[in-house]
């Protein structure tokens, strides 16, 4: 698990011969968390660019006569890469052309804010699954089961959404609660097994992921769940009273992102201010010491996994009540595994996880435009996401590549490896 | 204080406790035997269940009345459980447990097959074929984890192997070039795993998971950019030829399964023996086990801990890469996005269920392969048992195993702990 200190604060009283500027520059090029994060993203984008070029046969053909006229190959590569990454930006944050059209009166404000809306839509479930992994990490548990917990959250939230009739407002609350409880149950199992028998949570949660996915694929074929008007494996549509309210179409962003911010605040309070948070951090750092101090390690592990599972379950419920509207075999997508990356990128801190989830949401939203406009597969985004986390997890590697100075006060957030 | 971990439990378990492991197993067998005899027996139709010794309904067959068989085998399961409960000698324990589980499966089969037929050769060879990548993946895991590096990246190694085999196999129009590039693909992921885990001390489970996503992304990306637009040029690899050994191939059931098959089956089975022998009897094996259990002690006597770990992880990559070749050179003849579909994680389950030993991994992989094959068979004959639940079997079995409900599973002591020379 990671226990690292915040990036170095600039000292108020400067040492004698160092000016503020030189100190700032020195810190900037030292291996603090912020610098390492930005350099990791940069490195990932560079490797992504290489992949874009080597997979394009047109550009590769220019490289065949690289020695005689290098400008052709370099220009073509640059055009391709800049178009791809410009699309990534336009699809995720804002498109200047759409804003221009809005100001001219030829476009709508929806089109101008579309990219941000997409980013936040993709980010909302990731915040929950990321928080789930992060809080478990802080307690010394590695919750790879976010995917399974999110799937069960989808199932319970979704089933309550279409099978139970309740008034507007209450229905949504009950459906979200059902998602939380479903995920909590799926987290409770590995937590209990860890506490009672010592079964390693990494193994049990990986296995429970697959059990949950298979259960979902069985459930959507059953009568009462399956949409009788459809021939494919798809469930009934969730009633509008249980759907998360969204901005007017075509914007898709819904209440989920607000809930995600609230959840982040709650988790931050729980971790840093509540007695349980203190206990779980103590258990995470040193279980025997926590035990000696009179804390119940078993109880903490179980409760922690219940909370972590519940958060991931909420993520699944937000996904199904916010955007998906129906249960399908793929309804949870990859939000559980992405949550793992998000938590690692956010260094297992609640607000960091929120930012990381928004970055991943942005990559995903921009990736859609990149696929449509530049014809570059969405899978590139998966590569980028994985690469960013590889570099984040190996700060020593980034440090070596860029010859960074050792940070003055920040310890690099290397995750401490531990066995099964 | 109710904190109990695996270590504590071993100390707590007193030898003279009444509900010791054997009695708990016996009770479990009696319960599943009762389920078999009563539920399966009453649900089974009173028709003949035919187990043919060929690939179809023809030829010699073993037949039994479905209902009678379901009840009979259920009763045998109960008897085996009762013997365990009564407290027979310890050396019979494994045999009785095996007998109980096998008869339970037979009782289930009698229920399902009643009024139909089950071709044994097809079932056995199908199970072996489905188990093939699991065996190779689990062996890769054995190599890594016995030397102390957790390998969650088997899935990624499979994918890279499968992709490399498809791409190079097609470009070179040679199945052997495909097999070699499958190995290269597995080794690439293994090298990243080793480098990040051993050199940069990154959490090995984190690296493994991220490398899986990386492999998924890279192969998916190149698939959509290269293979999808021009499948003929990039994605139509040749198949591994099937070789028939004359004479041996005529033995009933075993002959067609083992001696009329592709090269990978032999590689996998030979590797099981080689790795078992290597771990138990060679200098390399002793050193590997020492590094995996107590690296500091190994270092003290002059073993190069990191070097040995690098070597074993890369060897694991070779084996897992061959496993990846199964997907594009044997099972189907084209690469597809995410075509391994979690097989790497079942291989991981087989490794753990097989207690980190080559033969254990083989047994677990065959069991999981059989469960998958049975699931396919049942959905083909329209059984009321949902095949999703049968597909859950490997995962449930692994959870039961790691929770210590059946026996005790212990990983190598230094598994996942990076070694820093002090």
UniProtKB/TrEMBL annotation, chain A:
Transmembrane segments: 34-54, 119-137, 149-166, 172-193, 202-221, 253-271, 301-321, 382-402
Domain of life: Bacteria
Keywords assigned: Cell membrane, Membrane, Sugar transport, Transmembrane, Transmembrane helix, Transport
Molecular function GO labels: transmembrane transporter activity
Keyword Transport tagged: yes
Keyword Coiled coil: no
Chief location: membrane
One Pfam match: BPD_transp_2
Subcellular location: Cell membrane
Gene Ontology CC terms: plasma membrane
Signal peptide: none
Membrane disposition: Multi-pass membrane protein
Protein name: Simple sugar transport system permease protein
Organism listed in the record: Paractinoplanes atraurantiacus
From TrEMBL, chain B:
Membrane protein topology class: Multi-pass membrane protein
Organism the protein comes from: Paractinoplanes atraurantiacus
InterPro entries cross-referenced by the UniProt entry: ABC_transp_permease
Name of protein: Simple sugar transport system permease protein
Keyword terms of this UniProt record: Cell membrane, Membrane, Sugar transport, Transmembrane, Transmembrane helix, Transport
Cell location: Cell membrane
Lineage: Bacteria, Bacillati, Actinomycetota, Actinomycetes, Micromonosporales
Top-level taxonomic group: Bacteria
Pfam families in the record: BPD_transp_2
């Amino acid at each position: 698990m990671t226990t690292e200190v915040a990036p170095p604060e600039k000292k108020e009283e400067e040492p004698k011969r160092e000016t503020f500027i030189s100190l700032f520059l020195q810190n900037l090029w030292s291996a603090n968390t912020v610098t390492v994060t930005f350099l990791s993203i940069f490195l990932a984008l560079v490797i992504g660019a290489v992949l874009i070029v080597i997979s394009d046969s047109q550009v590769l053909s220019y490289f065949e006569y690289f020695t005689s006229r290098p400008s052709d190959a370099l220009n073509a590569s640059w055009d391709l890469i800049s178009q791809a990454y410009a699309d990534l930006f336009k699809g995720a944050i804002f498109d200047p052309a759409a804003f221009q059209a809005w100001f001219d009166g030829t476009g709508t404000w929806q089109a101008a804010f579309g990219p941000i809306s997409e980013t936040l839509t993709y980010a909302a479930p990731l915040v929950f699954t990321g928080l789930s992994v992060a809080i478990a990490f802080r307690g010394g548990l590695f919750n790879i089961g976010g995917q399974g917990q999110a799937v069960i959250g989808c199932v319970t939230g979704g089933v309550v959404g279409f099978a139970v009739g309740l008034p507007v407002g209450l229905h949504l609350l009950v459906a979200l609660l059902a998602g939380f409880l479903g995920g909590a149950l799926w987290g409770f199992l590995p937590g209990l097994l860890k506490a009672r028998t010592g079964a390693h949570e990494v193994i049990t949660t990986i296995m429970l992921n697959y059990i949950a996915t298979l259960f979902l694929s069985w459930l959507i074929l059953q009568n009462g769940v399956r949409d009788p008007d459809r021939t494919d494996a798809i469930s009934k549509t969730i009633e509008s009273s249980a759907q998360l309210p969204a901005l007017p179409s075509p914007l898709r962003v819904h209440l989920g992102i607000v809930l995600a911010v609230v959840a982040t605040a709650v988790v931050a309070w729980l971790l840093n201010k509540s007695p349980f948070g203190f206990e779980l951090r103590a258990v995470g750092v040193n279980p025997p010491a926590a035990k000696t101090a009179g804390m119940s390690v078993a109880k903490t592990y179980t409760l922690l996994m219940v909370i972590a599972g519940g958060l991931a379950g909420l993520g699944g419920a937000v996904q199904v009540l916010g955007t998906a509207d129906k249960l399908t075999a793929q309804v949870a997508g990859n939000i559980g595994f992405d949550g793992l990356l998000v938590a690692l990128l956010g260094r297992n801190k609640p607000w960091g996880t929120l930012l990381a989830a928004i970055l991943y949401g942005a990559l995903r939203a921009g990736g859609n435009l990149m696929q449509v406009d530049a014809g570059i597969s969405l899978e590139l985004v998966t590569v980028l996401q994985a690469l960013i986390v590889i570099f984040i997890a190996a700060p020593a590697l980034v440090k070596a590549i860029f010859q960074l100075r050792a940070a003055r006060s920040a310890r690099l957030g290397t995750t401490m490896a531990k066995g099964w | 204080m109710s904190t109990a971990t695996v270590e504590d439990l071993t100390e707590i378990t007193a030898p003279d406790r009444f509900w010791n492991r054997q009695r708990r197993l016996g009770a479990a067998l009696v319960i599943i035997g009762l389920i078999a005899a009563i539920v399966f027996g009453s649900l089974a139709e009173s028709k003949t269940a035919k187990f043919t010794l060929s690939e179809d309904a023809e030829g010699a067959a073993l037949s039994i009345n479905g209902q009678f068989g379901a009840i009979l085998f259920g009763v045998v399961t109960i008897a085996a459980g009762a013997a365990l409960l009564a407290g027979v000698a310890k050396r019979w324990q494994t045999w009785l447990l095996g007998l109980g589980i096998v008869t339970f499966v037979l009782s289930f089969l009698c229920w399902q097959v009643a009024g139909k037929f089950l071709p044994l050769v097809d079932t056995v060879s199908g199970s072996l074929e489905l188990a093939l990548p699991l065996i190779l993946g689990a062996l890769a895991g054995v190599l890594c984890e016995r030397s102390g590096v957790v390998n969650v990246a088997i899935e990624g190694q499979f994918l890279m192997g499968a992709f490399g085999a498809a791409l190079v196999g097609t470009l070179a129009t040679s199945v052997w070039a495909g097999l070699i590039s499958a190995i290269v693909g597995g080794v690439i992921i293994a090298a990243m795993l080793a480098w990040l885990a051993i050199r940069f001390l990154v959490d090995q489970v984190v690296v493994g998971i991220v490398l899986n996503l990386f492999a998924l992304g890279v192969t998916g990306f190149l698939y959509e950019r290269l293979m999808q637009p021009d499948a003929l040029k990039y994605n139509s690899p040749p198949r591994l030829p099937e070789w028939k050994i004359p004479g041996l191939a005529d033995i009933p059931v075993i002959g067609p399964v083992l001696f009329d098959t592709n090269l990978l089956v032999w590689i996998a089975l030979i590797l099981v023996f080689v790795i078992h022998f290597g771990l138990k009897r060679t200098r390399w094996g002793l050193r590997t086990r020492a590094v995996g259990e107590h690296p500091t002690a190994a270092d003290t006597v002059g073993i190069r801990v990191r070097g040995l770990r690098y070597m074993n992880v890369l060897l694991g990559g070779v084996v897992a890469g061959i496993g990846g070749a199964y997907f594009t050179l044997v099972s189907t003849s084209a690469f597809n996005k995410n075509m391994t579909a979690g097989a790497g994680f079942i291989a991981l389950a087989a490794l753990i269920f097989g207690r980190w030993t080559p033969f254990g991994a083989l047994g677990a992989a065959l069991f999981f392969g059989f469960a998958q094959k049975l699931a396919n068979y049942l959905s083909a004959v329209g059984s009321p048992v949902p095949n999703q639940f049968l597909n859950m079997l490997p995962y449930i079995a692994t959870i039961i195993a790691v929770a210590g409900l059946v026996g005790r599973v212990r990983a190598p002591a230094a598994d996942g702990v990076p070694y820093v020379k002090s």
